[in-house]
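User: Can you help me understand a structure? I only have the sequence.
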Amino acid sequence: MTRTCPSCKSHNARRSAVRASEITFQHIFLSPYRCRECRARFWVISRHTYYLAGIVGIAMALGAVAWHLGSWLEAIGADEGAPETIAASRHAEATKLAELSKLAEGNDATAEYELAQMHGTGTGVPRSPKEELSWLQRSAGHGNVQAQYELGIALREGRGTIQDFDEARKWLQRAAEGGDGRAQYALGLMFRNGMGVPADSVKAYVWLNVAAAQGVPGAPSARDSVLGQLSPAELQEAQAEARRMSEIYIPKATPPVGSGSSAPARPPEGR
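Assistant: Let's start by predicting it. Here is the structure, written out as tokens:
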């Protein structure tokens, strides 16, 4: 805290009284002084300000200590319960793995798909993209639509396997015909862009239109981007085909139990 006169630079200054007209918010933080040499009156930071800053600093330091202490105690509590929690979690994962493996031995497509997910995330087993792909292939081959879609995307992107557009188209078409809107969208994009198949605006429009009818994000704008490439006759044909395919490839609501209705047989691959 300096008491140097700003006018004559003298250190010979003394505390001055606060006038009634000067009692404002600033006098809490500043104190008046008068230079004995030039009689100039000036303000310097009050010692009370330093006291206040010290108190605030101590309070913040104590708060930080309390916060870290609470976190430390919480961590200790978590660590004490962790072994039991971890053991229970591992037991549940091991039980699930054994059950799924037994079902997969009988070619259960759902179990095979769940095993693929476990190997992909490393849940209950070491993470292995190779095992994930292997179980996806088995599940897809046994008719699991989700597995067919994911396998098609993996082949299209070359993720964990060789990029193969022809195989990707095959699995995406199977999933699309199984009612998966994402696969219908992906298949429409392949026909629109000529990715692994001859570019076909009619087929692209049909699949994108069916995907849009299922509310797949991006499908309506992708469908509309193909409109300019279709003649009036082609558009009429494509819309008629989309109506027909929507009756086949858009899943219907599940009938009430005991209604006696059954799902129709899946039609052969192709448009």
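Now, to help you interpret it: Confidence is low (pLDDT under 50) at residues 255-271. Residues 13-45 form one domain. Let me know which part you'd like to focus on.
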